[in-house]
C-alpha cells in the first residue's frame, strides 16, 4: 500500500531565484523504512507543473534507499469543499445538532425542528451490486460530486433521504428538498469531497531500519526576484563630509505554488539555462512523443538566438560600445563555425553567481513579497561624469571646419561598494535629506563588485562642457593586407576639451572607448583596459581619466594613436 506524503509539495529546503523568471526549487521528504522484500511505494502529491527538461530529479540523500521507479498517476484524495446550498450544509453537518426548517408544500405548512442529522442517503440509479448509501449512520458522507447548486435535479433532491433524530418524535425520514433552512451554533460550512489529484508514485527499497531523506529538485519558470535601490544624500553642517544612505530590497514574484522555504537565495549572475528552458520535463508534461520531440527541435533552433527572457539576468557593467562598431573594422570573416568570444561584459566575471540569502520565507502563489537586503551609510564624492564613444571617429574623419558637438555630462555621485554584497543591475531612486526626501531623479545602478566604485547620475551638468575630436596627422601610403582586405595606417591626434563654467573646483571623470594603439597622452589615465582579438585590426581601449578642473578653466587632454583603417 502506498504511503502518501502530503507535506512535501508545500515545503522547500532551498530555493534559488534568478532575475529572468527562473528558479531552482529543492524539496525534501522521507522514505519510511520497511522490511518488505518487494519494496514499498510512496506518493508525492501535486508535483510541479512545468519543470525544465533535464532538471527534474528525485533522489535519496544516502545509500540506504534505492529507488526502483518513479511514475505519474492520479490518486484519490479527500479535500474540504465549501457549501453552496442548503443541501450542501445538511450533508456537511451529519452528526451535528442543528435546527432545520421543513415545509410541506401540499399542506402549505412550515415548522422548525431541533435534532441531530444522522445521515444523508443520496438517490442513485445503480446496479444491484453497488453500495448506494452516501454515508453510514452517524458518519460524515464523502462526496465525489460537484456542489449542489449545479448538480441536483429536482428529482434527485426529492429522492434523497435525510434521517433526522429528534428528542420528541424520535427518528424522522425527510426528503432533502423539504429542508428549506438550517441553523446551528457551530454550523459547518465545508464538506469532505473526493477528488483525483496528480501525484508521483515512487517505488523504492529501504530496509535500513530507519527513515531516509529523499530529495526533489527542479528548475521552473514563473518565480523570480526584482531588485531595486534607494539612495538618500544626507545633509551635513560640514561641507567636507559627504555621506549617503544606500538601501536595497528584493521583491519576490511567485506565480507557481504555495511553499515555505527554509533557505531562499536571490542570485546575481548569468545562468547558463538557455538550452532547454522552453521544454517541460516529459515525466510531468504528459506530451505525446511527437509533441515532445518537436519542442526539443524548437528549443535547439532558438537556444543560440539570445532570447530576451534568458538574457535578463546578465550582470551588466557599462553600456557596451563594441556593438556599435561597423563590420569593416574587423578582420576578414572566419568560417561561421568558429565561436567569437563576447567582449562586451568587460570587468565582469560571468562565471560567478552571487547569493542574497533569506531564512524561513513563506511564499504564497500570486503573492508579492518585499525583503530588505541591506541599509548602510557610505561616504561619497561629487563628480562630473562623461562617457565618450570614439570607436567610429577615425573613419568618419570630420573636416576641421565642422562644428564638434558637446558630449553629455552628468553631475554624479561616486562611492565605493563597501557593503557585503555585490551590487546588481537595478533601478535606483535618488532623494536628498533624511526628513525632506527631496526627489532628485532615478537612474540605473550597474553591476559593481565588492570594493569597486559605482556611479549614480543625479542631473545633467549644463555648466560643464566637454568636446572630443580626432584628426589625422599623416597617413602611411604603404598598404598591407589581412586576408583579402587592404588597410593603411593613420597617425591620429586626439583631444578632449573640458570647460568648467562653474564657480567652484570640480572633479571630472571621463570614460572613453576608442580604437587604435595609443603612443602618447598628456594626462595619465586612471585606468586603461586594452582588448585585443584576432578579429580586431586595432586595439580597443576602455580608458578612464579623472581630472580636477578649477573654476572658469578649460583643460585639454591630448593623446596620439596609430590606427589601421580599411581602404
Automatic annotation (TrEMBL):
It comes from the Eukaryota. Residues 140-155 have a biased composition (Polar residues). Residues 123-155 are annotated as: Disordered. This is DUF4139 domain-containing protein. It comes from Adineta steineri.
